Amino acid sequence: MSSAEILSVLKIATRMNPRKARPLLRGKRVLLLFYEPSTRTRSSFEIAAKSLGAMTTLVLSSGSSVEKGESLLDTVYTLWAVGADVLVIRHPHAGAPLLAASHLDISVINAGDGMHEHPSQALLDAYTIMRHRETLDGLHLTIVGDIYHSRVARSAIHLFSKFGAKITLCGPPEFLPEVAATLANGLHLTRSVEDAIRGAEAVMVLRVQKERLAGKKLSLQDYVAKYQITMDRLKLAKRDALLMHPGPIVRGLELTSEVADCPQSAIVEEVRNGVPVRMAILARALGKAK
User: Fold this and answer.
1) Which of 77, 123, 233, 249 is least surrounded, with the fewest CB atoms within 10 Å of its CB?
2) CA atoms 158, 164, 165, 167: torsion sign
């Protein structure tokens, strides 16, 4: 998507109110195909669809034909055959939504594919920032944590770099290899969380899974000591900087409870904004964006 297309989706989202239903998608069928557990993304896509008057059906990999060994393409062909107008897919393998889209003549929305991307999360993060800032142009964004495994980070980097953002990535080598600098032009990598946060307008913290530290030189205690976001560290950012996290958060690991609940925290706001943004995505996918 170009920067103009991104701004168009965000503009549509400003006109979407989940509490005031708009029957733009009345009679449409939205199929949610989730191969991975999800709370925020799945529920917000479902509420978004219903707020637009669509019918929704949730298909989980457990308890479905997927569990019996059915291929992705056979599953999506089945869902298309029973009348899906749009398919929302979360899958553990990168490229799965693209594969489905290339074989179907209905819209397919990527709700997260492996370690690749999570586009709707990037859009809702951009929407959240624009509720506090007039423009995305030149934003000073810092991303801290497990960037290597994060599809959220990849989509954020691709989106915000299109607006000339100054993006700083911070984390230990285990979670932030040097090759990450090639994801977009102008990325800055640092191992110092203090340097990364200093002067930032938005600080995006990523979840760290304890099991991914197993067998690594970096211990859990070392990670907390060097990279945990505390109030003292957050104070290095601009006074009105937003503290962001795609969730689920692990209090006491990647950030403290004080930070998670501080006035600068936009974590709950991000979840709330996921609904109007996904309403806009669905409406645009079905040609009903107004």
Assistant:
1) 77
2) positive
Nearest partner of 233 among 253, 218, 249, 255, judged by Cα: 255
d(CA 111, CA 6) in angstroms, rounded, equals 17
pTM reported for the whole predicted model? 0.95
Q: How many CB atoms lie within 10 A of CB 115?
A: 14
3-state secondary structure at position 32: strand
Give the whole-angstrom CA distance, residue 156 versus residue 123. Answer: 8
The answer to whether 266 and 244 are in contact (CB under 8 A) is: yes
d(CA 101, CA 83): 15
Tens digit of each residue's pLDDT (9 = 90 or more) over 237-276? 999 999 999 999 999 999 999 999 999 999 999 999 999 9
DSSP state of 248: -
Please tell me the total number of residues recorded for the chain in this structure: 290
Distances in Å between the Cα of 42 and the Cα atoms of 28, 49, 57, 115, 172 are 18, 11, 11, 18, 31
E strand intervals along 149-192: 166-170, 188-190
Cis peptide before 23 (omega within 30 of 0): no
For 24, the token pair is 């733009």
Beta strands in the chain (DSSP E): 29-34, 55-60, 86-91, 107-113, 140-144, 166-170, 188-190, 202-205, 242-244
Q: Are 30 and 85 in contact (CB under 8 A)?
A: yes
Contacts of 106 (CB under 8 A, 6+ apart): 80, 84, 85, 86, 87
pLDDT at residue 65, rounded to an integer: 66
pLDDT in tens, 163-187: 999 999 999 999 999 999 999 999 9
